[in-house]
Amino acid sequence: MSLLADLFSGSGLDPGYEAAAARRAASGDRGGGPGRVSRLLAAMVLLGLLGAVAVIQVRRGAPVAQRQREALITQIHQRTEETGALQRQADALRARTEVLRRSALAQSDAGQTARQDLDRATGAAAAAPVSGDATVVTVDDSHSARGATAQQDGHIFDQDLQRLVNGLWAAGATAVAINGQRMTATTAIRSAGDAILVDYRPLSPPYAVTALGGSGLARTFAASPTGKAFRTLEATFGIRYDIRQEDGVRLPAAPAPSLRYARTETPK
Prior knowledge:
Helix content: 40-55%
Strand order of the largest sheet: 3-2-7-1-8
Number of strands: 8
Oligomer: single chain
Shape: elongated
Low-confidence stretches: none
Order of helices and strands: HHHHEHEEEEEEHHE
Largest sheet: 5 strands, antiparallel
CATH class of one domain: Alpha Beta
Number of helices: 7
CATH architecture of one domain: 2-Layer Sandwich
């Protein structure tokens, strides 16, 4: 009980602390003089001012950032519309060129043979519009993959569209387009941030992949490994996945490829 008695009586202080307290009392330092209080008050005022300045800067910066974001979005829409207008103009010029070419080639037997060869090459290069019965496969993010609490597992990524397009080719498709953009053997499907690009043109969900290939294409694709994989993604992660058939679908020509190689043929 002596320890408790010492604590209650105040005599249980360690000798070292007791000696230090005695020296402080002898020097007149109370440890809480007006100077120290003034310094503490000044520091608190300074911290308060810094906090207020930071809050003001954040509030001023938020509208500026929002305006910059809206300006960038407006520019993107404008550039997209300009690109679309130029593409339509190029398509019209290409159609006129095709009419003139056919007219010129029809004037001789050699020209007609060349036109047949050209038609086969045009079809393989997706350089001309095509029409027919189509299978349309539509995919989209799951509902949980959007909004403030978005989950990555339910997103459609560029590699998903690549796999879907390749699966349709393997199932017997003769022509494929994504959201109206025609696919070729050299078409690039890639991502930039959260956006999916087809030949550097952004796509907006849902992604409708239209394929020409006859009435049996939908059944063949649904039974393929790619079709089964997308049904698994639908059941596991909730992506939206739908297959339907449409009649009389027209797919546009692909953008004209850049000329990389050329040679002069010597007449035989």
